[in-house]
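Fold it.
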Amino acid sequence: MTTFERVIGIDLSLTATGIAQSRVGEQTADLRVIETTGRKNDRWIDRWHRLGYITHTISHHVIVNAPTLAVIEAPAYASNTGAMHDRSGAWWLTYSMLADEGVPILPVAPNIRAKYATGKGNASKDEVLAAAVRRYPLLDINSNDTADAVILMAIGRRLIGDPIDDLPAKHLEALATLEIPHG
């Protein structure tokens, strides 16, 4: 089994990707948001550049010489928000970049992230934000993007046996179907 030194939560988005990175054994995390802009009628080359920017910026935070577990929000297949083709492209480009670097990746469904944070799998983004702000007061959580990234990172930390939170059993039920990837 791999011994991880870092866990990174990634809440992938076309406009504001949240990243929460923590070192094992520490109660703090480095939080970042990768902001991008675009329009649905952008040229194909502009959309490609945007997705590349997101992926390459993530790589600067994830690819290091320390064994790292990346916990990334899985695609929301039931979502009917716009730009699904671009969202899928960004997700697979990010997954490919991480896999090519040998980073173990744990995709976590949105309902599992919500249940871990709030105890309810159908909790809204704002309910997850409120729960994250309450539960992790040492972290500067100021958006849904950073809240989701922190929850994903916390899931990874708990799964590797280094939890940064104390949660009720109902919240921990969310972990029943997850297992640590081995690269």
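The longest strand covers residues 16-23.
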